[in-house]
Amino acid sequence: MLAAVRTAAASKSAFASMRSFSGSASIRPARWASPVISGLSGGLSGVRSSVHTPRRLFSTVKTAEVILVGCGAPDKGMGWYHAVQMLDGKVPSSNLTSIIEPYFLGAGASSDAGVDFAAWQGEVEADHEVKFLKSLSDLPVVDPKTSPRVALISGRTADNPALLTSSIAAGCNTIYLEKPGAPTVAELQSMKQEAAANNVTVLMGYNKNVCKYVSKVRDFASKNEGLVTFVSNNAYENTKESLGECFERNSEGMLKNMAIHELALLVSFYDVTVENIASVVADKEFSSVQTLAGPSGEERTDFDKIKFTITTKSGKQVSVAADRCGGSDSYATVVNDGKEIFKYSMPDEEDEIMVAEIQGRFPNAMPYFFPQDPDYITVKERVSSFCATGKEAEGVATIDIGVETLRVAEFLTPELQKQLA
Ligand SMILES: NC(=O)c1ccc[n+]([C@@H]2O[C@H](COP(=O)([O-])OP(=O)(O)OC[C@H]3O[C@@H](n4cnc5c(N)ncnc54)[C@H](O)[C@@H]3O)[C@@H](O)[C@H]2O)c1
């Protein structure tokens, strides 16, 4: 494992033991205040106002400045969860200095979620040296040659191409781009070119590339014969209303939205590219396509369940299954001669304790944050460490992987719909 990640684990266990040592609820002002800082402020009275970034106390890790672009609402936004992890000091190489939130600090400020956001902002500002800004243009520009700066872009997918342009203009030399990065291959390709022309590295938030169940299954499959299937489930209610709302909100479709993580695994680890696909076969018994009206009344056609097997020209075979109403877990299996010989799930038994703890702290947060918590940390740590030191972000998907993943999604969607018609 990377040294940087070992440091993260060490700081995490230091954090865990400090929590159990300090204990007092009265010194923990809010659920999103850093527990490490709260522990310190209880133990060392008067230190709190000058202590903002726990990692500086525990390690001498070189840090990169991180600008979070597109935070989203507390409990709901992916960006919000990234912020919480950095504020907790769980990402030693990152120094979160600014949170850019165009909507909740602008047109959406008076919405219910905007009011929630303002309350969270107040709590964070009281405890951390973090600035909240409406636009990247409000940020002081730095020289990327002397000041390593990451933009963690987690806006709506359709807004992310413009946010990348503004992040480059603000002097960010490394971009952590949430998946899928852009609505179309053409847009992501042009973002890739823009970044390259400005000497900016773009790494993608495909956290399943670094997660435990994937590495366990890949490890088993490297030593045993069998077909690997990556399975991803969501917990939507199986009704026309619930799925219609899901199809409308995730209008890029099942493959570019939910199953995109699995496609990134295929591109990263199974040589899958559009040109290298020899065949794709839909599992007609498992799969289902529906045309449903969303809340706006507009109808959309999408898969509510899809399973398929790809065989590559280089002789690899791998399957993916995704089900909008299958539950809230992800796992992978290895099947040989019709018999399942290996299965590993996320979360595993060890992680269930961690999931319960985080859920207790954030009972209303999106449930998918909890089992993926360690993987979000790992990707942020590797990207920040790359920006601060130049050390390769091992296992993290590059924008080339991101482009090919979207290409595969655009290729497979009509092909699978045709097979299921
Ligand atoms: N890696 C993962 O596991 C994972 C999980 C979820 C989302 N994501 C990705 O993260 C990114 C952000 O997703 P999200 O679910 O946090 O999105 P979100 O819509 O909740 O928030 C993103 C941004 O959208 C803006 N916004 C929110 N409501 C708006 C409104 N009504 N009108 C206009 N703008 C509004 C806000 O500025 C916010 O910062 C996407 O690229 C998504 O694909 C990744």
Quick recap:
One of its GO terms (molecular function) is oxidoreductase activity. Keywords: Oxidoreductase. This protein is an alpha/beta fold.
Task: Write up this protein.
Keywords: Oxidoreductase. GO terms for molecular function: oxidoreductase activity. This is Gfo/Idh/MocA-like oxidoreductase N-terminal domain-containing protein. One of its GO terms (biological process) is NADPH regeneration. It comes from Triparma strigata. The protein has 421 residues and is of the alpha/beta class. It has two domains: 3-178, Rossmann fold, CATH 3.40.50; 209-348 and 406-420, Dihydrodipicolinate Reductase, domain 2. The protein contains 13 helices and 13 strands. The strands form two sheets. Strands 7, 8, 9, 10, 11, 12 and 13 form a seven-stranded mixed β-sheet that branches. A six-stranded parallel β-sheet has the order 3-2-1-4-5-6, sandwiched between helices. A hairpin with a 5-residue loop joins strand 9 (288-293) and strand 10 (299-312). Helix 1 (3-22) crosses helix 2 (35-43), helix 4 crosses helix 12 and helix 10 crosses helix 13 (399-420). The longest helix is centred in the last third of the chain and has 22 residues, at 399-420. It is globular, with a radius of gyration of 22 Å. The relative contact order is 0.14. The model is unreliable at 1-56 (pLDDT under 50). The structure holds nicotinamide-adenine-dinucleotide (NAD). Residues 70-72, 76-79, 101-103, 108, 154-157, 178-179, 205, 207, 372 line the site of nicotinamide-adenine-dinucleotide (NAD).
